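ok trying this again, last paste got cut off
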Amino acid sequence: MTELVHRRSLAERIFIALAFAVSGLVLMVPLAVIFAFAFREGVGVYFSNILERNTLHAIGLTVLTSLVVVPINIVFGVCAAWLVTRFRFPGRQFLITVIEIPFSVSPIVAGVIYLFLYGGQGLLGPALASVGIQLMFTLSAIFLVSLFVTAPFVARELIPLMQQQGSEDEEASLSLGANGWQMFWFVTLPNIRWALLYGAILCNARVMGEFGAVSVVSGAIRGQTNTLPLQISLLFNDFNVTGSFAAASVLALASVITLVLKTLVESKGRH
């Protein structure tokens, strides 16, 4: 029995070591390479690459996209989760499936779909152009496709939680005289706050890192419609390796911060 326990303990140690080794190889080594290449010509060159006009614009556009998209998806996610978990109606399961569609569609395909819909030769493009509206190759196109690819994140976190919690607390608050808004702010929202924050963090991470859909509809115009992932690609294609890794380090740092926030939220949610 002691020998069996010892063997199991040894196996556990081996698997733990293997997990750390693979994690280090797959995650930490690439991260270290990004920062090594970013700083290989010195701190001064690194900051000059970060402060280059087009790269600064790309960083600002990425942040702006996040500030626009994440709040909209938070509202959409809360409304969708409320509708799905608190009401029974024909087509409910279909609605859940529709919410999940962006996860099953390639981002590049999503970008092409928007291009075929709203492009100059698309289904709705000529009608929009006739009234002076252009969506493709503008900031609006970036916002639209980013909304599409990140739409499920908040709803997907909230729906299972709200189904598990049930509606007893909300019904009790209504029976005590609370109106709809009071019920939401003082009962529903506190019960879902950690899942909501977790979904928002995941949504933000995907918005900031989105490449495929944005590359199709933005036109990748330098200094105008280039988000940070597109700027990294353009710099690399221009053989500005140090500049591309410097820009990539900003995105990597944002990812690390997101990971830390995600871990903190998960630990708070467990408590």
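PB: full thing came through this time. Residues 2-38 form the longest helix (37 residues).
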